[in-house]
Amino acid sequence: ATPSPATKRPNDHLYAALDQHEAQVDTPAPVAKRHRTSVRDKAASALAAEAAKLKAEHEVAEVQAAEAEHEAAEAMAHAKELGQRSAELKVAAQKMKEKVEQAMKQAERAELERTAQGRALAKQQDKAAKKEAQEAARIEKQNDKNEAAATRTAVKDMGDAIKGSMRIAKIGGLWSVPPGNVSFRGVKFSTFKAVFARGRCKFSPENYCPSDPTISLITKDAASIFGSTKVCGGSMYATFTITKMQATYTPAKEHLTISYDTDGF
Length: 265
Known about the structure:
single chain, two-stranded antiparallel sheet
């Protein structure tokens, strides 16, 4: 008789999978694999330690930077106070010098007037001083006229150059006057000061002087400085006006650069 096949349990495939898993668990990992795992763990630990060290150094650097910034701010404030104090002392010293000179002149005059000959000499000195004062006033008046004429000429020349630089162009299908700039050489400090005193300007430094390396300004009042006709440009298609103007002046080189933006760009 043919033998009957062995009877199979319903969950034989599950038991087989479990036996295989237990065999894998009981089997130790190869030596080479354990070595690779150990190296990776050490490398990860080393990198983590290095990252922690760098983080700590970064935190220390941030604290030091904040302290340095605070010290710098205090130093700048102290320097500003010293500067103001120095300026005040200079003014006080100048006033004292003028008082001393005045007192010395009065003493010398009193000494002269003790004798007839001295009184006659004092009258001669008064006449000479009066004449010198009149001459100085005449020269100052003439200098004022010359400066006013130079300012008018500078305003006209600069205005013409600005007007000439405003070129209308069609950009992206629209007519506009792009931003522009013009430069001038041989501009005296007194002329620069007089020209831009005509409009409302914001200067940097605020209390500028001829010894400053550069002087910059910005204004939205270009029309008051150069005239409304000099700050408008365009054509029959459109007209545009300068809305903002910047200038940079280098006193030592007597060089002035003016740049502008218009309402059409």
